[in-house]
Hints:
Distance between the termini: 40 Å
Structural class: alpha/beta
Number of strands: 17
Strand order of the largest sheet: 16-15-14-13-7-12-11-8-17
CATH topology of the largest domain: Dihydrodipicolinate Reductase, domain 2
Amino acid sequence: xxxxxxxxxxxxxxxxxxxKLVPAxxxxxxxxxxxxxxxxxxxxxxxxxxxxxxxxxAFLPEEQRADFDRLAPRLHYLxxxxxxxxxxxxxxxxxxxxxxxxxxxxxxxxxxxxxxxAVAAVSLAxxxxxxxxxxxxxxxxxxxxxxxxxxxxxxxxxxxxxxxxVLREEQIYRIDHYLGKETxxxxxxxxxxxxxxxxxxxxxxxxxxxxxxxxxxxxxxxRGAYYDATGALRDMLQNHMLQVLALVGMEPPxxxxxxxxxxxxxxxxxxxxxxxxxxxxxxxxxxxxxxxxAGGKPVPGYREEEGVAPGSGTETYVAxxxxxxxxxxxGVPFLLRHGKRLPRRFTExxxxxxxxxxxxxxRPAGVSEADLRRLQRDGSLCEIRPNVLxxxxxxREAIRLSFGVKRPGPSMxxxxxxxxxxxxxxxxxxxxxxxxxxLLDAILGDQTLFLRADEIEASWRFADEVLAAWxxxxxxxxxxxxxxxxxxxxxxxxxxxxxxRWSEGR
Length: 506
């Protein structure tokens, strides 16, 4: 890590700064070699450096304060607006006076409303704060932006075009905090380091893949209007879930170079098969939660939430059956599900391996060989899939592989068993927070876990096709499900024949 980087956070009075950014920077400063960077928070509210430090410290839990106290002397504040030329001139002077001065690397984190991303980048450029020689390794200039990266493909392209007027792609760090989670990162190591799995990671051995992001909460206070204009597909599936899908399905990269990995992710996303607009009910289900019981308490329906339009047609639940049109995965369904107000909060990937070609064990008593084959062909008798690989992302970060073992006794009867790995148990500590990893990578200049412009476009291209089908003449109805349930029963129909059903976590 460079010895004197400077981190500038615009929107420093916001919730993200208090909850995620400053705690992550404090941990980096306390635990990483060379973590002697400076931090400047910028927001419109007037306050002193001491006010800023005191407010942040008071917000933190006791166990985080020791790390924060080490960072606090290097934590500064400047009142100003990102579009105000005088404020940016004052920021430039303040940065020049900090250790490293103008020769230090500078990371600008735009914790702002999405509509201000391009405005902020242009203002910073006009103030001379983004000037950087190509390939500069010391006095670098980088900009971090949070999702959403547009609201559809045209707006995503427009945002990239506006950013590229003042920044090179190598300077833009589009952050998706899901990619900072340890289990998500471990997809690469797990797949490409373990020779027992990679040969099986294809259509010949995998029957289906499930990706679930289940949330117990409904619409959070203050987010009703934003969510109502966004919906489950744009808010979660288009970005977080498709990024996880890309890591699960991508081809092996030739190296761990960031561009090599991102190239393979883009190719996978471009291979997503678009839904047939004439039969949208066959590939997807959308729904919203109605009043119900969650956590033992009655909760309102989505349209009764604060900020949501009474006649809203926004979905809070989406389930899709996607396919990838490439040599590795053609014909394998990727089932994606996200919903709010479900019974349990969990995120996981499940890889269901195919059953053996002949059912030798646990055969029904009294069924002839001919009847057994007939029942299996028409789906009346489904074989239990003994091998399922589960990669749990949250709240527990773990990997579980199920398999069958013979029960004790004279009969050839099989029982389920599992091998399991838990990050906390194995390493003796919880994995680092996603923002800690991502902010450190941004300071180091590693873009592996950040999104490239063409990745964003490929994701939006798929999402826009789904949304267009939902607006078309054959659009399926917007269903309802009681809060606290697992969603609409119709989503189970996305599984065909003996493919199984949605996971409920564990």
